[in-house]
Write a structure and sequence with these properties.
The chain is α/β, with parallel strands linked by helices. The chain has nine helices and 13 strands. It folds into two domains: about 210 residues, Alpha-Beta Complex (Spore Coat Polysaccharide Biosynthesis Protein SpsA, Chain A), CATH 3.90.550; about 80 residues, no CATH class. The radius of gyration is 19 Å and the shape is globular.
């Protein structure tokens, strides 16, 4: 067990316009047991200069060769001492209470994974004074990730991982960028208890013109890569988890099929539907079964402010 609870790992590349606000949001977290690690993946703009202004308040690693965001995140984790890794991309921003929420969940549940909740932001990040402090936490606990029966908005900045469980997977796959988080979560699919946060939001996910999420064909290609990895047995769980895994893939395929058709990539979308439609059917059956049998219950943790102690304290579960 580490004496340090959280290591916030920020990976960035050519994000001079966003990274100052990102790092500031990490340093401003009220939770005392944290470190902030920033990996500059060989930026060619002024990102490194911006990061140096933070001095010794951050652990800064400046890479000389651009190896990609997954390799940069792995490098950040290699420097980490915290029990839990909080991943944060250089263009996103943590909510002021993020670590306080995560800390309460760690103390109560000791999860392997926390799936935080993100709010989309177009343009400027709203001021803290305009954002209401949460009065409750709403979560669902699952025995593992593949048991999840509710949707989640996939982005790296909402992911908190126990460091030991992360290291057991060999980390992010450096060769995968599109569908990178889906690959990691498949590696951790049966790692242990997983917390899905339904409220409050813990991250501002910034939407801008260079977001990778606009590149629909690349993400569809990434799905085929993940399926090949599953077929090759590169994800743990074995045959007993095959149905759960492929029903999860069905949800992923359905989402990107819709995105392809919406963006006018009709051939990509229809090819995905025809070749992998059976997984969509499997996902539909599983979702219908969850509705009929009943999904995992929601746990509500009521919160109060206590200026003499932690900013957020749980008063009843």
């Amino acid at each position: 067990m580490s004496d340090l609870l959280f290591s916030i790992v920020i990976a960035c590349h050519n994000q001079q316009d966003f990274v100052r606000e990102c790092v500031h949001s990490a340093l401003s977290q009220g939770h005392p047991s944290k470190e902030v690690i920033v990996v500059d993946d060989a930026s060619k703009d002024d990102t490194a200069d911006v990061l140096r202004t933070f001095g010794d308040s951050i652990i800064l690693a400046t890479l000389s060769v651009n190896g990609g965001v997954c390799a940069a995140r792995n490098h950040g984790v290699s420097l980490a001492k915290g029990e839990y890794i909080v991943f944060l991309d250089g263009d996103d921003v943590l909510m002021p209470w993020a670590l306080d929420v995560y800390s309460l969940l760690v103390k109560a549940h000791h999860p392997k994974l926390i799936l935080g909740r993100s709010a989309m932001c177009y343009g400027e990040i709203p001021l803290v004074t305009e954002t209401a402090t949460p009065r409750e936490i709403r979560i669902v606990e699952y025995p593992d990730f593949l048991s999840k029966d509710r949707p989640w908005v996939y982005n790296t900045s909402s992911l908190v991982v126990e460091r030991a469980a992360f290291n057991a997977t060999d980390g992010w796959t450096a060769e995968i960028f599109y569908q990178d988080i889906q690959d990691l979560l498949n590696k951790m699919g049966v790692a242990g208890n997983t917390i899905l946060v339904l409220a409050p939001d813990t991250v501002w996910y910034r939407m801008h013109t260079t977001n990778a999420s606009w590149k629909v064909p690349a993400f569809i290609k990434g799905i085929y890569i993940l399926l090949e990895r599953a077929k090759a047995g590169l994800y743990p769980g074995g045959r007993q988890d095959k149905t759960r895994r492929f029903s999860w893939f069905g949800g992923l395929i359905f989402y990107w099929m819709k995105e392809a058709l919406r963006a006018g990539h009709y051939r990509d979308g229809l090819t995905l539907l025809v070749s992998k439609g059976w997984m969509i059917l499997l996902a539909t059956v599983r979702r219908a079964a969850a509705w009929m049998i009943g999904r995992q219950p929601v746990e509500v943790i009521r919160l109060e402010q206590d200026e003499a102690a932690e900013p957020l304290i749980a008063v009843r579960s």
